[in-house]
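Much of the work behind modern protein science is quiet bookkeeping, done one molecule at a time. The protein below has been through that process, and both of its lines are reproduced in full.


***
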Amino acid sequence: MLRYGKTAQNAIAAMSYLAEGHREPHTCIGSQEIATARKLPKSLVAKILTQLSKGGLVNGSPGPKGGYWLSRSPEKISLFEIITLFEKAEEMVFCPFGRDYCGNHDPCPLHDEFSKMEEQASGFLKTTHLGVFRKS
């Protein structure tokens, strides 16, 4: 299983709900509906959607009948785009000798294996898009 922070996980949960296609494209879906469907606190979903909006991944409409929708088709939004709004990509790499060791010394004994795993995970996140969540 890929490891990334709770906020990034919750952002994918919210985005996957928007991608499922419960309504016509560009129809507003409120944070309460998403929170209920994904069993998340509404305040958390609202904060995440605000960040996703600032990142250009969702559009929103304020007010009682407002809500959010994906800014692009689900097939054009990768999981990597979502995660990097909440995680620093350079901090996803792990070295058991501590931060910046491998770049300043001989590589640690696990460097090559960790690099391969990071490349595979990063490749998966970059090529996997929200279209996988679309319901037919």
